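Sequence only, no structure available. Ideas?
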Amino acid sequence: MGVKVIRDRKPTASGPVFTPDGRANALYLNELFDAVAKETATRLHRRYRAEVPLTGGLWGGSWYFADECGYTRARFRRLYSLVCVPQNRGLEDPGNLKLMFKVYASVLAEAFEPYGIALGDANGGDIIGYSNRKRPTLDFQMWDANKKIDYIRCFFSYNSATWEEAYLYETVRLIKQTKETLDKKTLTEPPRLEGMAIRFQLQDLVILYHTLEPVLSEQAKAVGGPLVERIMTRFAQGMSDEAEMNALNAQAFEGELIYAYEDAIRADFAREGLDITKVEEWPVDRINRVPASLKEQLIPHLQAIFQRYRGNLKAAEASALSGKRPGK
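Reply:
I predicted one. Tokens follow.
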């Protein structure tokens, strides 16, 4: 009997991640990022006997800017992933951390190669702002030599969790980041933002609204709902005027929308002794941990989005097949 050879698996999703014109499908992209994380963990164990279970998924809320089947309405040139890394003492060694990034980079490149994306240059280890001071979220980025996209940027967050729970934890950090230019207690007016900065600011306002919608007050929905719909409509129409984008951000400033986001989750975390305005100081065992009261309301809401995409994709596929039958 010969020695059984176990070959590496190329990560895949249950459907095509990109359309011919370069738009991404949020459901399949989320699956692919999780497959990359799991295959990285498998290879680390197989080759180095390292127990580093990883989970992954989307970051950045691109699914809120998608159609009924999860396809982004425009071509996204920057893709973002959130990866959960266990608090493994072995990863405190810079050499081991570098090795994990090296294996992850190889797997990520393999996963996107079928789509004509050539991920090459990689940079990992930079600290993400507003993350835990003792175990900060780390940045990892790879650029596409073929220029089909600009880059893929990954956020490595230190604590094992499901993707949904980690995403909600990172939402606390995103609120604080977005608040930087919307805090009426420290600013008389919002600063003028330019280029991608103002686009990201408006996108984050939309992402936070839809993520937290089940726990927002009726007043917050009355103020934020119409503004968020306006932002999404204008983005879909190709909004590019920075004066208009800054005017929309100023409406969020005047409507104190960022405080509504804080108020929606503040009490739930406070009951567990955690101040959402000081997320950097939380104990390391609270990374990627969300109060059960919030999970019960927000995780089903998040999961339902992808379940809807999956159902609509199956329905669209069945309809297409039916349309090809003779006499139909």
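DSSP finds eight helices and five strands in the chain.
Hope that gets you unstuck.
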